[in-house]
Amino acid sequence: MPIRHTRLPRGGVMSVQTVCIGWHWQPYRYTRVAEDVNGRPVAPFPGWMVELGRRALVEAYQDPAAGQDWTPDTALINFYQGEAKLGMHQDKDEKSDAPVVSLSIGDTCVFRFGNTETRTRPWTDVELASGDLFVFGGPSRFAYHGVPKVRPGTCDPACGLAGGRLNITMRVTGLSG
Ligand code: MD3
Ligand code: FE
User: Fold this and answer.
1) pLDDT value at position 136?
2) Looking at the CA of 78, which ligand is closest?
3) What is the pLDDT of residues 84-98, one digit of tens each?
4) Binding annotation
5) Which residues make up each annotated binding site for Fe cation?
6) What PANTHER family would the database entry show (predicted)?
7) Nearest CA, atom 7, ligand 1
8) What is 4-107+131-141+151-171's CATH topology?
9) Ligand nearest 142 Cα, by number?
10) Structure ipTM over 0.85, yes or no
């Protein structure tokens, strides 16, 4: 399935481009085929990424048992090119409160981490650089968050991207089939 700008239900188009594995995400739903793109089944979720995510949970929680029952079945891969940004939102399309693991590659961005009640302040802005990995578990899982800015040209040449920013989020959908 090719990467694409997701169409929003009210007619807008996201400036970020997204491609999914495991399950195909559209606002408010997950499906096994990319019906809004080309009707093709999405690529399977690779076992090595399950293991990478589990290692992240073990490190984040400093608990060798963390992640043993955590099996991500989808990843949303966002690509930020040019002026692309992501407005403040909650991730509520998964039927699971399991942690989300986020891995950033490429240009540094400003990540805005808000609160669970409103999409407004208080929030905390943090820079996410290439190689940064975050685990959002517990109450953070349902906090509002967004990416107001990417800093062009801040990527280490060794990151392997010609420009822009990639973010991979591993998730548990809580869906079956
Ligand atoms: C906190 N992605 O894919 S990554 C998203 O950089 C998303 O592309 C941003 O927000 C990006 O939904 C932020 C960090 C992140 C990802 C998912 C979360 C933080 C999260 C889900 C719940 C809580
Ligand atoms: Fe999100």
Assistant:
1) 98
2) 1
3) 999 999 999 999 999
4) 89, 91, 145
5) 89, 91, 145
6) ALKYLATED DNA REPAIR PROTEIN ALKB-RELATED, NUCLEIC ACID DIOXYGENASE ALKBH1
7) 146
8) Jelly Rolls (2.60.120)
9) 1
10) yes
Which are the contacts of 117, defined by CB distance < 8 A and separation ≥ 6? none
Q: Where is 53: in which H helix or E strand?
A: helix 47-61
Residue 144 C-alpha to ligand 2 middle, in angstroms? Answer: 8
H or E segment and range at residue 101: strand 100-106
Q: Give the β-pairing of 109-113 and 145-150.
A: antiparallel
Does residue 9 come out as left (phi exceeding 0), alpha (psi in the -120 to 50 range) or beta? alpha
Percent of the chain whose pLDDT exceeds 90: 96
| Pocket lined around ligand 1, Cβ cut-off 6 Å | 76, 78, 86, 91, 100, 102, 111, 134, 136, 140-141, 143, 145, 147, 167, 169
Q: Tell whether the model's pLDDT for residue 1 goes beyond 90.
A: no
SS3 (DSSP) at 113: strand
At 42-71, the pLDDT tens digits run 999 999 999 999 999 999 999 999 999 999
State yes or no: cis peptide before 152, omega within 30 of 0: no
Written as one letter, the residue type at 143 is A
How close is the Cα of 91 to the center of ligand 2, in Å? 5
